[in-house]
Amino acid sequence: MFKPATSAFLAVTATLTLFFSFPSPPKSFYHSLFLSSSISDNASVAHHLYTLTRRPHVAGTPANAEAASYVLSALTSYNVRAHIASYDVLLTYPISRSLTLARPPPEPAVKFTLRQEIYDGDPYADVANEVFPTFHGYAKSGTATGPVVYVNYGRVEDYETLKEMGVNVTGTVVLAKYGQIFRGDIVHNAYEAGATGAIIYTDRKDYGGGGGDVKWFPDDRWMPPSGVQVGSVYMGTGDPATPGWPSTKGSERLSNEEIEKEGDVPLIPSLPVSGADGETIMRSLGGQLAKDDWQGSKDAPPYRVGPGPGILNLTYSGNQTVATIENVIGVIEGAEEPDRYVLLGNHRDAWTFGAVDPNSGTAALLEVAQRLGKLLNKGWKPRRTIIFCNWDAEEYGLVGSTEWVEENRELLASRAVAYLNVDSAVSGAGFHAASTPQLDQLLRQAAQQVQDPDNSSQTLYESWASQSESSPMSLIMEVDRLGGGGSDYAAFVQHVGVPAADLFFGGGYPVYHSMYDDFVWMEKYGDPMFHRHLAVASIWGLIALRLADEEFLPFDYLSYASDLQKSAKDLEDELSDKGLNLNPLFKAIEDFREASTKINIDVKAIKETKSWSSIWKEDHMRVRELNDRLMMAERAFADPNGLFGRSWYKHLIYGPSKHNDYGSKSFPGIDDAIEEAKKVSTSDSWHSVQHEIWRVSRAVKHASQVLSGELT
């Protein structure tokens, strides 16, 4: 009579034996497989780049819509659920432009052609007519005429130097070199100095190999004499007509007059020109000899500052239009925590062909997706949801990512674990990374698992360390910070407060934003074997896998505490004679360090006592609660009121420099207040600095409370 029960018992026993005899591979198995050469493919990543860069594809054009369709199709083929998220945004395109230089007699006037030259054998000559005439995105239409003044890089300190030299910029057209600061800041600084227009050129010393017998593309990596760096001069972030809210169909939009009042679009016309044209203008200048560090390459003419006697007449007319842009979003849903998001992002739109910027990153993104698709086919499922984001209209001012973040702000604020950005993935050798500090250790650990594509005897970590003064085995090796507004991490970090990282090989490259940034340049000089593309995909995907799969989020806020301490000490040194009280800030940082130490201890304790009891709900909820504290601490640094005069930027620890959107500042609100106080030097202005110190102190204290998870 016990036979049925015995049969049932044997059946259960057999099932359990089978279950425990063939356990699912651990997540780490799939992570190792992700790095295996058996599932990576440099031919595939090269094909992606070739296809994406066959035509110029500026945001809002049919060619860029075709590129979006390609990305969508590729993601879908890799078993990634994908869709298009569209926005209607204000973009600008050139209608006409002209530039004429009047020189003292008997020299004739020069009418510049403003054209980038096709070279012999150029495989893209058939589509060269699709390259837009050289222009600045969101440049002001109008005419500017005046004597020329050379302003070096157009920085605030360069205008101070001219003032000391007795050079009056008012009523002139300035000639500035690209480099050092964001081009929008160059135009804005020119306007603030009283100039009527701005010309920005690519100097041979910076982009052309230094002059002399140096060859240029296609015979070498350098910018040809006719090459022009185009780009946006918009100082804001996102659609100028919808500041702070998404540009969905039927949404509220500002008028052109209201946009100008916002202060982020330029108020004087500007044009980018080639190194050859810039040198021609330079030869027309008289006046004082420029400083040694303002001079050009060894065979360039002597650089003088003017004004004149050369006189420029600049005319630009642009078309402002509301165009549809398309973000491609792909989703691999998490099995256990689908409401926690690990996001990988790269933009797709380019000013011309965009082989480096941005489509080396797009090709790497598709490589990551392809590998993860293969892991899905082998039985892997992520613990948390992984989201691929291929942004549009980044070049105009981080438009696509900003609109998407603004539309999804509340969900991202409550669910985003981290955002991992790759823009120009490969422009040469040498790995670089920047992050919010709690990701520093994760970056280093991942870099130790990926081989250096340029030296098979070492890891990325070792090659990365060799570029710094730190020892290759140092755990305090410098990681850059994400304060600047140079790429799509800005909306995540600086607007919402999401932990983030940015990865790339190389750095600045000479044909940046010109028509020579094409597949040929990449194949010859950027990454001939496409091994760097595979390496950046490897570390990008590995970091995403660890964030998506590890039971405890691999965040280390002690790195954050150390970074805060260093920044506070630098601030103390700067303000040592101002009578300001930094004790609240140092006290808040110490509390933050204690909270960081405590949560690390809590995580370690649970890991060390993990056993069968971990399947019980209360332990699961404990893990979830600890992870929520690790995830949400970054949000506490984002103040709802934002920076004074720059309210879109909410993050009080990291933000762009006020006079260089590419630059990164710790405590940007304090820095802004110090700059103003030094200028006006009143008691009220220094009181404002003290107020900003208090604001940062409170933000750090709030982050400590989130980490501790306890009410006061």
- From the N-terminal CA to the C-terminal CA, the straight-line distance is 64 Å
Task: State the shape.
Answer: globular
Helical percentage: 25-40%
Summed over residues and divided by their number, the pLDDT gives a mean of: 93
How many E strands?
18
Family: Belongs to the peptidase M28 family. M28B subfamily.
Signal peptide: 1-19
Domain PA: 145-229
InterPro entries: PA_dom_sf (IPR046450), PA_domain (IPR003137), Peptidase_M28 (IPR007484), Peptidase_M28B (IPR039373), TFR-like_dimer_dom (IPR007365), TFR-like_dimer_dom_sf (IPR036757)
Describe this structure in words.
- With 712 residues, this protein is of the alpha/beta class.
- The protein is 39% helix and 18% strand.
- The chain is built from 23 helices and 18 strands.
- Strands 1, 2, 4, 5, 6, 8, 9, 10, 11, 12, 13 and 16 form a 12-stranded mixed beta sheet that branches. Strands 3-7 form a two-stranded parallel ribbon.
- Strand 17 and strand 18 form a beta hairpin.
- The longest helix is centred in the C-terminal third of the chain and has 26 residues, at 583-608.
- The protein is globular and about 90 Å long.
